[in-house]
Amino acid sequence: MVNMKAISRMSEREEVRIEHDIIDLDDLTCHPHNPRLIRKKKFSDLQKSLKEDMWMMSVNQIIIDESNVILSGNQRVRALRKMGIQNAPVMRLIGASEEQKKRLLYKINDHHGEYDPDMVANDYDVVDMDNLKHYGNELEKMNSTLMEQNIRIVLEYSEEKHDEVISKLEESEESYSDQVYQLITNRTSTT
Predict the structure, then answer these.
(1) 24 and 58 belong to one structural domain
(2) Exposure string (b/e) for 85-117, b if CB count within 10 Å is 16 or more?
(3) Are residues 144 and 161 in the same domain?
(4) Domain that holds residue 135
(5) 108 by DSSP, 3-state: which?
(6) What is the CB neighbour count within 10 angstroms for residue 18?
(7) Which of 18, 27, 48, 139 would bridge with 132, disulfide CB 3.0–4.6 Å?
(8) At what angle do helices 40-52 and 74-82 cross, to 10 degrees?
(9) Are residues 180 and 137 in the same domain?
(10) Is residue 12 assigned to a domain?
(11) Which helix (H) or strand (E) holds 138?
(12) 180 domain residue, yes or no
């Protein structure tokens, strides 16, 4: 058996402790800068996968911080809630710095769904964009695309509207960027 505490100490200067727990999903909060989105079809596939292999939740646990903010598993939590599941196993990171949490968001969330390029662009300054190559192939490709663009559009809305906005954007098979472009061009052409 491997001592996880020793592994976390070897990989970081600061000690990051890991605790395992079963938690009420209502006690969890989605990370406000979760860079991942999931389209309807893939969300349906995720629900099917969870139904078929619910036992894997014990192996691939939702990862949270000390404040119950989800660092990995936002889409799984949404799917579990929709399926009527109330509790799930979690791995709680204790003592992780904000930078460690941010790196975890990008490194570990590289499966179901895709990256929201607008969220990634808004989460990183141009100087930081070069660091995306260390977060995986998908982000490295996105980095070169984002660096070629000369415009950055920031969508601002209240925290209360967040889930509604994301839900509307996910209804379409088009990228967030294409949907925003259509919205802007439609509004511009009608004025």
Answers:
(1) yes
(2) beebebbbbeebeeebbbebbbeebeebbbbbb
(3) no
(4) 116-153
(5) helix
(6) 16
(7) 139
(8) 70
(9) no
(10) no
(11) helix 137-148
(12) yes
Closest CA to 61 of 4, 135, 122, 127: 4
124's tokens:
């990183």
Residues 64 and 33 in one domain: yes
Helix ranges (H only) for 37-113 are: 40-52, 74-82, 98-108
Nearest to 182 by CA among 163, 164, 162, 168: 168
CA distance 121 to 52: 36
Nearest to 79 by CA among 101, 58, 116, 54: 54
Q: Does pTM top 0.85 for this prediction?
A: no
Residue type, 124: Y
Burial of 170 (0-12, 13-18, 19+ CB in 10 A): middle
Note the pLDDT of residue 137.
47
Q: Which residue has the tokens 């660092």?
A: 71
Tens place of pLDDT per residue across the chain (191 aa): 344 444 444 454 558 899 999 999 999 998 887 777 888 888 888 888 888 888 888 888 899 999 999 998 999 999 999 999 999 999 999 999 988 888 888 777 655 556 676 676 666 554 455 555 444 445 555 555 555 554 566 677 777 787 788 788 788 777 777 777 777 777 544 44
Domain total in the chain: 3
User: Do 106 and 136 meet the contact criterion of CB atoms below 8 Å apart?
Assistant: yes
Give the three-state DSSP class for 33.
coil
